[in-house]
Design goal:
Layout lengths: L4 H11 L9 H12 L4 H11 L3 H10 L11 E6 L2 H5 L2 H12 L5 E2 L5 E6 L11 E3 L2 E3 L4 H12 L15 H9 L14 H12 L12
Parallel strand pairs: 1-3
Antiparallel strand pairs: 1-4, 2-3, 4-5
Bound molecules: FE2/S2 (inorganic) cluster.
Length: 217
Amino acid sequence: MAISETTIERMHALAAQYPKSRSALLPMLHLVQSEQGEVTPEGIAMCAEVLGLSPAEVTGVSTFYTMYKRKPVGKHHIGVCTNTLCALLGGDAVYDALSERLGVGHNEPTPDGGFSLERIECQAACTHAPVMTVDWEFMDDVTPSSAVDVVDRLERGERVESTRGPAIRDFQATEFSLAFPDDGLASEGNSVDDKMLAGLRYAKEHNMAAPTFGQES
Ligand code: FES
């Protein structure tokens, strides 16, 4: 699929934001995904052309990071963290329930393209384990039934709020935000909650402070 002129213009705009234009490659790959739903060969070729890199260099980056997809994902891409803490608190059960509900396995889209599923690594959100992401937005403290309920509601076209962030849009819309973060959604939804502040509260109550470094006599 050819890259649109609008996307090529946006690629040049991203490249112009950095002293070294190749620094724009990561957002440019998200931009490719926002238009094409995956990192296509055409997207790789255009990124290389705009940045003066070889297609092999762009391919090397796009295959290193798991957020870049080399196969089509669903309209909604669901990640389930199955790293240690989430697994201990039920992440595998959440993954299994979604896999059964959707009829797909790891990194597979449903036949109608509505969803895809992925086992993901720690999201630095262990406070709310087990967590899943929908189009990279957090759904915290999920259970097998609450995770399946999210899929049911999205399938019915209902509005679904993430637990920390804006309402769920779709994979390609979020990918555009990752290329151009100024989407006006930064203040939507909760960003910090009581659980996240528990450690800070405990430290204050017990007059604890982080050790200072580099001041030894
Ligand atoms: S182990 Fe799942 S968010 Fe950290």
